[in-house]
Each structure stands twice: as C-alpha cells, then as structure tokens.
Sequence to fold (276 residues):
Amino acid sequence: MSAATMTAPLSKPGADEGRIGLRANLRHIGALVRRNALQIKQDPESMFDVLLMPVIFILLFVYVFGGAIAGKGRQDEYVQYLVPGMMGMMAMNIATAVGSGVNEDFRKGVMDRFRTMPIARSSVLIAKIVVELGRMLIATTILLAMGLLLGLKITGGVGSLLAAVALSALFCAGLMWIFILLGLVMKTTQAVQGTAMLILMPLQFGSSVFTRPTSMPGWLEAFTKVNPLSSLADACRALIRGQGAVLHPALITLAWVVALTAVTMPLAVAKFRSKT
Fold:
C-alpha cells in the first residue's frame, strides 16, 4: 500500500455523494434507521413524550379549557373540533425532537464515526426523519384512540382518516428540516429546545387548533389565516368529520411543506456536510 493511500483522509469516501447510487443510499438509510430504532429500544424513556403527551394534552384541553371554550357541558362537541386539529400539533411537537437529536449526536462524537464511513451525508439526516415520523405515527394513534374514548366520531370514513394522518406526516417531515438546521447551527441542546419553543408557541396557540379564529382579535385572526398549522388543522378536521372544504386547506398545507423543504433541506444538508 502506498504512502499516499495510507495518509488519505478517511472522510473522503462519504464526501462525494454523487458516486453513491440510489440503492446504496437506501441501504445506508435502512441501516441508520435500524441504529436509531435500537437506540430507542435501549432507552425506552425516550418514548415517554410520544406515549404520554397525547393523553395529557387531550385531557387537559378537553376538561380544563373545553368548558370555557365550547361552553359548560359541551365537552363532547369540543372533542369533535379539537382532536383533528391536535393531529397537526402532535406533528409539530414531535418534529422538534429531531433537532435536539442531531445536536446531541454531534456533541457525543457520533458524527465523527459517520465521517469515516463511505455513506451519503444526507442519509444520516433522512434516517432520523424516518424514525421521528414513526414516533409521530405512534403519538397520532394514541391521540385518536383517546379521542374515540372521549366520543370522537370519524364520520369521514377510514380513507379520509388515513389521508389526514398522511397529510400530518408530510407536514411533520417538512418541519423537521427547520429543526435539523437549528440542531446543526445551535451550540447546545438546550438552545435548540429553547428556540424550538419560541417557534412552537405562537404557531400552536395562534391557530385554529383550539378555537375558531372568529373569536380572536382582528390582528390575531389575520395571523391564523396564514399560519400553516391552521390550514393543516382545518384540512384534518374536514377529512375526519366528512364535512367542510378539504381541497383548499390541504393544498395550502402541501404548498407549505414543499416551500419549507425546498428552502431548509439544502441548507441543512450543506451545513451538515461542512460540520462532518
């Protein structure tokens, strides 16, 4: 073996993704998904947010705020309005976790090991998104199960329900690129989580998830109309309840997903390459 070969940097094989074919990329993503899933198996406490958050949120908003928002004794009606909207809220909350995970992997030196492997850099990020989407689907299933226990009626049919879940998953995937970028830019996990909360709070509470925008001040009502979470909540609500306009809010949601992905995905992958 020549001296030049022995001294070549180990990161070079993974640096040029153009030489890695689609089949190899999929194989790398599959291996990394398995690695992340095994991490969850070894640390089951990391699933507490997925398992408990839907239960706590739905009980809190239905029985603490439901009477004030919908009227005393009308919690059953509020469940029909709230639960479909909360599907988007679950997607948004789960999406934040991927940024913290990326940041923690860098701090623990996990990414240093990936640097020595001849894998596409983007496969590392895509694998994390796939795992978080799995967590999101579990949280959504628990949310819907709780909703059914509290009297939710899925009058739109199973196909419409699956369409609502798929739309929420697409929205979640688009948001994840924002939080991945935050995880790559911020120095600490606490900074990622703090910044994520600053993004989440106005989007969640300035939306149509919990109450109709017509009850809000004019300036806040105007914000809810351009809030992507409102569009997702309205689309899921129309799909599950089988009434109301579906196409318009669904198309707006998909447009937001495409725009967010088109802007933040290249930035996140470029930043990831520069750090690895």
Q: What stands out?
A: The radius of gyration is 21 Å. Residues 1-16 have pLDDT under 50 and may be disordered. The CA atoms of residues 5 and 11 lie 13 Å apart. Residues 75-108 form the longest helix (34 residues).
